[in-house]
Amino acid sequence: MRTVGCPIFDGVRAFDYAVIGEVWSNRLSPTGLPVFDLRVCGPDRQPVRLGGGLERRPDDEFPGLLDCDLIVVPGVTDPFAPADPRLLDVLREAHTRGIPVASLCAGAFVLAEAGLLDGRRATTHWWLTDDLARLHPAVSVDPEVLFTGDGEVWTSAGVAAGIDLCLHLVRTAHGQQTAAAIARSMVTAPFRSGGQAQFIPSPVPVADADDPLGAVRTTVLGELDTPWTVARMARLAVMSERTFARRFAAATGSPPLRWLLEQRVLAAQRLLEESDLPVDEIAVRCGFGSAVSLRPVFTRRVGLAPREYRRSFRGRDQA
Predict the structure, then answer these.
(1) What is the pTM of this model?
(2) Residue where one domain finishes, among candidates 185, 220, 254
(3) Which parts of the chain fold into alpha helices (H)?
(4) Residue 4: pLDDT band by 50, 70, 90 thresholds?
(5) Which of 114, 125, 129, 193 has its CA at a distance of 20 to 30 angstroms from the CA of residue 161?
(6) Does residue 102 form part of some domain?
(7) Residues 273, 310: contact at Cβ < 8 Å?
């Protein structure tokens, strides 16, 4: 996924356009990152007025998107304005050709207008979810997630959630190390927790004497092979199970056992990318017990089986 297309038109949000540029701008190697080709396409190659009064002249017309490996539609300032029919036709054609298509924030309204969200789960900025559901009843709108998708079509919630989706798409195509390196260059977290968090692994704070939950997370991460239960974690925090579970979910956006499973999968990804350990040993170290137990959970969350993930991502972008 080296060539990424970004359609622009009057009313595109400048922030969302900038996020796409930050994630997929050309990057050359002292850091070992892949070099991306970001293609900005618009109507007739004429200057486009972005939100906030900025202008950008497209590199190509909308059909140039059809030569890309991925298309990311930025958010728009007016989600109720009709989209350019030429863009809608190109998005439909791209989808027919199997090119993954994503949207940030209110860009979901463009994908919905193209018919790409019909029968799919989708999200957008929380204050627009009711409008998206009302205008496009064939779309299953989920207001709770940071982003959602099925490998073919992706949508994200508002503003910073667009960064989460872009980094997820990089991670899916190029591996965790590449996504983490880009996140560091942007001075942002590669994974973010919060009220809309789904399967995104949460960064763990350094243990603090005044933060028993942070101390528990630090301990658990150091002992992922331990058969952790909510009761055991609650004892570490010196809380009742109910209080611990409630406070843990409020702090991380995930119930304790879901968070634990996410961290185990994330640790397995790291070891598959960075070590020569057999998959069975990785499974044991990460708390799954065996490769047989690791495989279905890992595949469901990452989209590839552990061995396929290792073949696809280990060192591929470091040459």
Answers:
(1) 0.66
(2) 185
(3) 14-24, 85-96, 108-113, 129-135, 160-174, 176-185, 212-222, 230-237, 241-252, 256-274, 279-285, 291-302, 306-313
(4) very high
(5) 114
(6) yes
(7) yes
